[in-house]
Amino acid sequence: MGRTKGFYETNEINALILVDHIKSIKYTGGDNKKLCDWNFPDELHAFLDSYLRWFEDYWTQRINVFDDLIPSVNPIFGYAEHSAFLGGEVTITDGTSWHHRLINNWCDVDKLTLREDNVWLRMLLDGFSYLKERSEGKYALKLRGANAPQDLANTLRGNDFFTDFFDYPDELKNLLGFCVEAIQWTLSHQHSIVGTFDGGVITGGNVWLPGNSTGHLSEDASTMCSPQIYEEFGLSYTSKLVQNYDHVYMHTHGLGRHVLPLIASIPNVDVIDIANDPNCIRSIEIYKKYANCLKDKYVVVALNYDEMKENISFLKERKTIIRYSAEDLDDANRAIQFVRSELN
Are the C-beta atoms of residues 139 and 73 closer than 8 Å to each other? Predict the structure, then answer.
């Protein structure tokens, strides 16, 4: 936490490094069950107990990896929890979940409700409470995060969302307005249980932010929008959503680099995660191309060792949160040592 706070508060630390995957560590400790094999919500606590056994075993194996990753947990059931708190059908697969389209006719928007007894909301919030009870000071809680308004509307409308811009613009804007309200509602419930950690909050992206902050929010649907479409049907709604937070962690994709300047223009969106995508230039190249609009942001990028070395001059000039996937413990510590020596 000292290094993390120093990253935000001083000019002495240019990078944090989060080793969020070590390939040589074998995942043991938990039940070897697929997500769809659990009977939710009845087996929620058993599922979380299994997760904690895996989590503690994993951290025991990487106990001598001194990166900037904070041991933290949250309840996660795939992806459906980002929207299924509004009702509807969910399919759970081997390793994730997805929420079926909920709005087939525009009159369905009027039927959307925010219900405290929704099973997916209860699983998420009860999961937070159970993990908090079990923590005993050994790990922190982190937010699950949420969709940004466009992503939530895309889930609710399916891929008709991308023609609604032209066919039903007024109806879509009405839905996006509701999505802002719904996301604020689910995030407020998460915050009420997660609380604060050392004067801030750990986001769903494993990044701590000071003060009244939130994240991660995701702008995945924007990758399929022109800047003009995003400006009309995304920018103002996300701006309204985040206006009451000190700092926001935003997840984006390299495929959506054409809207990156607009996302970077949103007040309070101070941390921007540019995920690598298949058949797309690497995020570090996008970071460099859009360096001017990102110069006041904390940018999150996944780098390999060669990319860190090749771009060291660029990284020394700005604040970067590096995600690193290590082959083994030695590789992890090699990367950490490089960052400590070159970017402190």
Answer: yes
Q: Name the token pair of 160.
A: 């008709």
C-alpha span between 252 and 218 (Å, rounded): 6
Q: Quick one: the chain helix, strand, coil %, rounded to 5?
A: 50, 15, 35
CA distance 90 to 97: 7
Amino acid at 15: A
Domain end position, chosen among 132, 161, 196: 196
CA dihedral 315, 319, 325, 329 (to 10 degrees): 90
From 27-31, 175-179, 222-226, 334-338, the region with the lowest mean pLDDT: 27-31
**What is the tally of structural domains in the chain?**
2
pTM: 0.95
Q: Are residues 219 and 321 in the same domain?
A: yes
**Using 50, 70 and 90 to split pLDDT, how confident is the model at 31?**
confident
Domain span including residue 88: 26-61+71-196
- Each residue of 139-154: pLDDT tens digit? 999 999 999 999 999 9
Q: pLDDT tens digits for 229-244?
A: 999 999 999 999 999 9
170 and 280 fall within a common domain: no
